[in-house]
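Subgroup meeting minutes
Present: P.N., E.W., G.H.
Scribe: E.W.

1. P.N. recapped why we're keeping a running log of single-chain structure predictions: easier to compare across weeks, and new members can see raw inputs and outputs side by side.
2. G.H. added today's entry (193 aa).
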Amino acid sequence: MMLAKWLSIDDHIHNVHDDHASDLFPKCTKASEKLSSLLTNKRLQSDVKKLSPLHQTSNVEAYHSLNLHFCLKNTHYSYMGIKCRLILAALHYNENSSRSQAKTKTGEDSYTIVFPKFKNKDGGYSIQKKKVPATYAYASKLMETLCDETVREPQKFAEVQKNVNIPPPLASQFDHPDREEAVSKLLKRFNLP
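Output recorded in log:
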């Protein structure tokens, strides 16, 4: 079905809707022939067959965006700091990913106007469904559990922390050259004194 829809684009751009030629477009131009060859490429058709109308990547992108919210790229975190922040992001996403659309006081669906960066030059905007506010019940449950566990058995908690297997830094996997030798090679390469 997806492949059939994809290949129908070729007919539509040539104004062929019911398997008959149109007098308005009797001969293809070079540009449309090139587009046609791209659309009917066997490799692309193979990929299009695998597309799903139900499973899009917007949810994955939303989750990755949430990870960036909890774990900023321009801030250095320890291994455990990153791990904890990513777990919090996952808990937040799981609790709030399927929020319903907010309603107005009269019971109608609520929408909001946003101004995306890519539309700035046109003064354009987009309309988005307004969601009900996010909830944070996971945070309360997590704090209760953490306080109960650490207050009841603080030594057990400290022992668990000590036994966390922290992997070595990625840079430790590479051989580090002698600094003077590396600088010497660079200067030789660019014929610098």
